[in-house]
Write a structure and sequence with these properties.
With 127 residues, this protein is mainly alpha-helical. It has 4 helices and no strands. α1 (6-31) runs antiparallel to α2 (36-65) and α2 runs antiparallel to α3. The two termini are 22 Å apart.
Length: 127
């Protein structure tokens, strides 16, 4: 395997941080949508962004870290988040249950995001 340069690692970190920011914004837009049509549009974008974020972490971050417990724990969180997302997807977008479930998903995603940034990113950079 070819060693990854510091610049490439920094690029990966910047890219993943940008994805994290995008999902945060889309959660807010979805929760504060003016009507069902707007909410549906933002939620579709959010689902796509969450999927892209997890694929990026799985393909670009976890393999470079190669630290058993950290990666396995984060993968477990990602699996739980996928289940939550599947549940939210089944709900009526206009219901209070949707808002509650989406808020719970937002918190789980934020917790996961903070762990990735606090626990994996330093292992990528050696800092």
């Amino acid at each position: 395997m070819t060693p990854v340069s510091t610049t490439a690692k920094d690029d990966v970190i910047d890219y993943v941080k940008a994805q994290h920011l995008t999902t945060r914004r889309l959660f807010d837009k979805t929760l504060h949508a003016q009507d069902a049509t707007e909410r549906q549009q933002y939620f579709a974008e959010l689902r796509a962004a969450l999927t892209a974020q997890e694929v990026t972490e799985e393909l670009l971050v976890h393999p470079r870290v190669r630290r058993g417990r950290v990666v396995e724990s984060l993968r477990g969180e990602a699996d739980d988040t996928k289940e939550q997302l599947d549940h939210v997807t089944q709900l009526d977008l206009t219901s209070a249950e949707f808002e509650t479930a989406l808020t719970d998903l937002q918190q789980a995603t934020e917790d996961h995001t903070q762990r990735v940034e606090a626990e994996e990113f330093p292992l990528l950079t050696g800092r």
